[in-house]
């Protein structure tokens, strides 16, 4: 007599004692030296009640039966060892897998209530197994395919097959035709880069506040996954991070003479990044902070260019004015004055943008609980000071580096020391740091004994630059 499957599975299996599952007979796929009975409930779940311990099983059936009109999914037995040491093909039984039961799944055919199932014999080799759900891999492939809504910018950056400048030029054409559509494409690129499956729609953008949009995006995150592109260390995603930063810089570089000052793109983007950087979701904070810091660096370069244009304009105006009343070109003087006013307005707008990023994002994130975020802030702050010393090489900004020299994480302290190296290597900038030096020199000297060797080495280099 064959044993019934576990009681909990009977409703699912539509089990019948015979011929649904036959006792294995010699010559029909079983070991010729043994006669096996169908498995008990304990054997069904694998020995000890644990599943997935291996593909081997001693239960080998040449055929099984499936009700007509149903699609089959085979459940494999998982046992720690085989009950029989041989199989029909002469292979060790540990290399063979067998179907214990066939679970019928819904299909187009629905039998009448109470009607006996119409059974037919199906060779075991023709029964398809239900595909297993693939777990997210370490390469982040699941992140790339998690969202059915394909974002052009994200796919272009991830594939790395198109030059960033070309991608930005194409996006800029879209933005000029419809600025809301172009802006949402850029926003959804950032959202996808966070590993989020959500999409910001035009309706959401027009009718919801940023906090409400971020709340809806937060609900789209998978609770059981902590992976997002910036957290992955494989080569494709390291390249993605570099291209991500390059794209943010290229957007500002391509728009610095017109679109940056349209009072829409930068205002809306900075506002959204500020909200994302304050989220409780680490992926949002990390990605938006990186984007904001790179955006700030690009704006610093724009501000530096505007200040150089102002200096040139001032020299041209003074040269024309010095010619005297009879030789002055009135039209040229008026044009230079108009250009000066325009440059002054641009400078004020850029400074307002930088202040919004610094006060809204940097001041809060330089002490974030995530060390990678703190390190990003210190690295970019050193870049701003080195590039635009007139605005950033002041005690109001230097104090953040001095405070962070006491950080507990190696990578954060290391970025602070490297930022100071870039400042002390030039005598012009070092001359503006006397107050900082007197205030934090004790801490810098003590860091020679830092527990991290690479930090101690960089501190010695820093002190050498300070003594030169």
UniProtKB/TrEMBL annotation:
Q: Residue ranges of region Disordered?
A: 23-53
Q: Which GO terms describe its biological process?
A: cell division; chromosome segregation; establishment of meiotic sister chromatid cohesion
Question: Mind telling me which SUPFAM superfamilies this protein's record contains?
Answer: ARM repeat
Q: Name one GO molecular function term.
A: chromatin binding
| Keyword check for Iron | no
Q: Which residues form the SCD domain?
A: 362-447
- List the keywords (alphabetical): Cell cycle, Cell division, Chromosome, Chromosome partition, Coiled coil, Nucleus
Task: Identify the Gene3D superfamilies for this entry.
Answer: Leucine-rich Repeat Variant
Domain of life of the source: Eukaryota
Give compartment(s): Nucleus; Chromosome; Chromosome, Centromere
State the Pfam families in the record: SCD (PF21581), STAG (PF08514)
Q: Which residues form a coiled coil?
A: 326-356
Q: Does the keyword Methyltransferase apply?
A: no
Give any Gene Ontology cellular component.
chromosome, centromeric region
Q: Which PANTHER family match?
A: COHESIN SUBUNIT SA-3, STROMAL ANTIGEN
| Assembly | Part of the cohesin complex which is composed of a heterodimer between a SMC1 protein (SMC1A or SMC1B) and SMC3, which are attached via their hinge domain, and RAD21 which link them at their heads, and one STAG protein.
Family under the similarity heading: Belongs to the SCC3 family.
Q: What does this protein do?
A: Component of cohesin complex, a complex required for the cohesion of sister chromatids after DNA replication. The cohesin complex apparently forms a large proteinaceous ring within which sister chromatids can be trapped. At anaphase, the complex is cleaved and dissociates from chromatin, allowing sister chromatids to segregate.
> Under what name is this protein listed?
Cohesin subunit SA
Which organism's genome codes for this protein?
A: Accipiter nisus (Eurasian sparrowhawk)
């Amino acid at each position: 007599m064959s044993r019934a499957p576990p009681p909990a599975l009977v409703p699912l299996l539509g089990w019948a004692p015979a011929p649904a599952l036959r006792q294995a007979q010699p010559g029909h796929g079983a070991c010729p030296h043994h006669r096996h009975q169908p498995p008990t409930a304990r054997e069904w779940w694998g020995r000890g009640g644990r599943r997935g311990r291996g593909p081997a099983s001693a239960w080998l059936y040449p055929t099984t039966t499936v009700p007509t009109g149903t699609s089959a999914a085979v459940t494999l037995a998982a046992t720690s060892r085989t009950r029989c040491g041989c199989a029909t093909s002469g292979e060790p039984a540990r290399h063979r897998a067998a179907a214990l039961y066939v679970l019928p799944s819904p299909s187009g055919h629905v039998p009448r209530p109470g009607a006996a199932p119409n059974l037919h014999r199906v060779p075991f080799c023709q029964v398809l197994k239900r595909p297993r759900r693939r777990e997210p891999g370490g390469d982040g492939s699941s992140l790339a395919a998690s969202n059915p809504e394909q974002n052009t910018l994200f796919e272009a950056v991830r594939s790395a097959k198109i030059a960033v400048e070309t991608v930005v030029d194409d996006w800029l054409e879209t933005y000029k035709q419809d600025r809301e559509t172009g802006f949402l494409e850029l926003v959804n690129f950032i959202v996808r880069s966070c590993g989020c499956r959500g999409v910001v729609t035009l309706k959401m953008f027009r009718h919801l506040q940023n906090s409400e949009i971020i709340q809806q995006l937060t609900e789209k995150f998978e609770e059981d996954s902590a992976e997002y592109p910036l957290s992955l260390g494989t080569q494709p995603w390291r390249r993605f991070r570099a291209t991500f930063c390059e794209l943010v810089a290229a957007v500002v570089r391509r728009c610095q003479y017109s679109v940056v000052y349209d009072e829409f793109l930068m205002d809306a983007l900075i506002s959204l990044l500020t909200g994302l950087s304050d989220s409780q979701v680490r992926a949002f904070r990390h990605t938006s902070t990186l984007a904001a810091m790179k955006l700030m660096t690009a704006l610093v370069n724009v501000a530096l260019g505007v200040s150089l244009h102002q200096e040139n304009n001032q020299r041209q105006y003074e040269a024309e004015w010095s010619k005297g009343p009879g030789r002055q070109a009135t039209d040229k003087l008026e044009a230079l004055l108009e250009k000066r006013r325009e440059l002054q307005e641009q400078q004020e707008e850029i400074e307002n943008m930088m202040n919004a990023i610094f006060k809204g994002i940097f001041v809060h994130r330089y002490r974030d609980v995530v060390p990678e975020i703190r390190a990003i802030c210190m690295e970019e702050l050193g870049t701003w000071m080195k590039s635009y010393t007139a605005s950033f090489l002041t005690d109001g900004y230097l104090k953040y580096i001095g405070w962070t020299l006491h950080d507990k994480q190696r990578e954060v302290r290391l970025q602070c020391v490297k930022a100071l190296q870039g400042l002390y290597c030039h005598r012009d900038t070092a001359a503006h740091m006397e107050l900082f030096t007197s205030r934090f020199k004790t801490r810098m000297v003590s860091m020679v004994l830092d527990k991290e060797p690479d930090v101690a080495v960089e501190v010695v280099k820093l002190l050498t630059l300070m003594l030169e």
